[in-house]
Write a structure and sequence with these properties.
- There is one protein chain.
- The protein is an alpha+beta fold.
- Helices cover 29% and strands 22% of the residues.
- The chain contains seven helices and ten strands.
- The protein binds a DNA duplex through residues 1-3, 6, 32, 59, 74-78, 93, 110-116, 152-154, 157, 160, 162, 169-172, 248-249, 251.
Length: 261
DNA sequence: CTAGATGTTAAGGT
DNA sequence: CACCTTAACATCTA
């Protein structure tokens, strides 16, 4: 689930539900998801504060507290936030629970525990330390072209490289390449600037469309690859059966007829 | 039982 | 240095 559009929908969700309420206390039911912090650190930093604003960089969601510290949530492959009132409604695989003074709760849910929770001085500092590239929705054309000129590996791998561009994962990489009509294994250094510019436009359009659909793949236009991205389905453009193939260790779906090398 | 699933990193090799 | 592959992490489902 959680690539850039999903995390953006989580940001909107947290923004709408979880700001301006004092955190009474919190509980950590599985410390495995904590990175570079202990439960004690969270207990010291958060109770008594309020989340005041939200920010997203790539696949990371940041909540800024009124004490100045930033809570960082990363969702791995299976994570999401859930806000609710009655503890009976607490979702399965809840790993950390924030309890607000108004009686509501915000759960960090993560079945596979590949997500991360941390405390950061700032999103910018975190992005620098972690070596993240610019956010894929905020980057501007010239910088995109400049960074893409330096890539030499396969396009799919390049798009998913968080150090190049932060936010694109396995399935949106497939969508972008489908709309560019490029085979996922095409080498990045075989593109000319015209193709790079095309890839910039497509990347922006795909991500913005997905954000507008609240990252619900079934609400994407029929002409997109993603609603059809499964075994035995057909290309929405030409009807050819889609191919699944390992590219850079991940499953790539593409149309063998539309997407040339 | 096995393979694969929207993520990331470490380690080793070319 | 840039890139590639593999393995690993935890857990569930087809």
């Amino acid at each position: 689930m959680p690539e850039l559009p999903d995390v953006e929908s989580f940001r909107n969700y947290a923004q709408a539900t979880s700001l301006h309420q004092r955190i009474a206390d919190l509980s950590v039911s599985d410390a495995y998801v904590l990175t570079h912090v202990t439960e004690k650190d969270l207990q010291r930093a958060l109770p008594g504060t309020c989340f005041e604003s939200t920010l997203r960089h790539g696949k990371n969601l940041f909540l800024h507290t009124d004490s100045g510290v930033w809570l960082r949530l990363h969702f791995g492959m299976t994570g999401f936030p859930k806000y609710f009132k009655n503890l009976d409604d607490c979702p399965k695989y809840e790993r950390v629970l924030f309890n607000f003074e108004n009686g509501y709760h915000l759960a960090y849910v993560c079945q596979r525990k590949l997500g991360e929770i941390g405390l950061e001085d700032s999103p910018e500092e975190f992005a620098r330390k972690r070596g993240l590239g610019p956010d894929a929705l905020k980057i501007e054309r010239e910088e995109f072209l400049e960074l893409l000129r330096r890539k030499r590996g396969m396009l799919k791998t390049s798009l998913m490289d968080q150090g190049f561009l932060a936010g694109i994962g396995n399935i949106y990489a497939d969508e972008i390449l489908f709309q560019c009509r490029l085979h996922p294994a095409t080498r990045a250094d075989s593109l000319d600037d015209e193709m790079r510019a095309e890839m910039f436009e497509v990347t922006k359009r795909v991500l913005q469309t997905a954000v507008d659909c609240n990252a619900d793949l079934l609400r994407l236009p029929e002409s997109f690859l993603l609603p059809h991205r499964s075994e035995g389905q057909e290309c929405p453009r030409c009807g050819t059966e889609l191919v699944r193939e390992k590219v850079g260790q991940r499953s790539a779906y593409y149309c063998p007829s539309c997407q040339s090398e």
